[in-house]
Specification:
This protein is an all-alpha fold. It is 75% helix and 0% strand. Helix 3 packs parallel to helix 7 and helix 6 runs antiparallel to helix 7. The longest helix has 37 residues. The radius of gyration is 20 Å and the shape is elongated.
Length: 175
């Protein structure tokens, strides 16, 4: 463990580990979607049979991976950003701007988490199912919305803490 890692507060390291874990889960969901797509193509093109659940499963896996991977992408700073104005500012003003932008983002993501939870809870309470032969329980897919945005919110709060109170620790230094 390096000195920088020891100085990183435990909650920030735990949030980073959680973001990484869900990033790995999101990657496996994409892999599963690709494999199911290949299987679906084989069944349709080679065997000449119809498919029942594959298209729907791929859609739900891609939705889930998108939502659950939000925090990981934020951790890597992989979201699209325009940094012309921040680069023109001095470092102290850059930190203030970053905190303001993150506060606005936290408010928006908080709202998304709240309404996502309501959507999930309604689907779970009413036992909604997809309108296909498979009749997949929709609460499972809807759960990815508040969970993904909630994890994203945690990562944003960790990033905001670092922006306001400390220097960012390089990913290589984290364990």
């Amino acid at each position: 463990m390096t000195d920088d890692t020891r100085r990183t507060p435990l909650p920030l390291r735990l949030i980073g580990a959680l973001s990484d874990a869900f990033g790995v889960l999101a990657a496996f969901m994409v892999l599963a979607a690709v494999l199911i797509t290949c299987q679906m193509i084989f069944v349709r093109a080679v065997l000449g049979r119809s498919t029942v659940w594959q298209t729907e499963a791929v859609i739900y896996l891609v939705i889930g991976s998108t939502m659950l991977g939000l925090a990981y992408v934020q951790r890597l700073r992989g979201h699209v950003g325009v940094d012309l104005v921040p680069l023109l500012l001095p470092v102290s003003a850059r930190r203030i701007l970053m905190v303001i932008v993150m506060l606005a983002t936290v408010a928006m993501i908080g709202a998304m988490s709240w309404y996502g939870w309501e959507m999930f809870h309604t689907a779970w309470r009413r036992n909604w199912k997809s309108e296909t032969v498979w009749a997949f329980p929709l609460w499972i897919t809807y759960l990815c919305v508040p969970l993904g945005f909630g994890l994203f919110l945690l990562q944003l709060l960790a990033d905001m803490w670092i922006a306001a109170f400390g220097k960012p620790v390089p990913r290589e230094a984290e364990g």
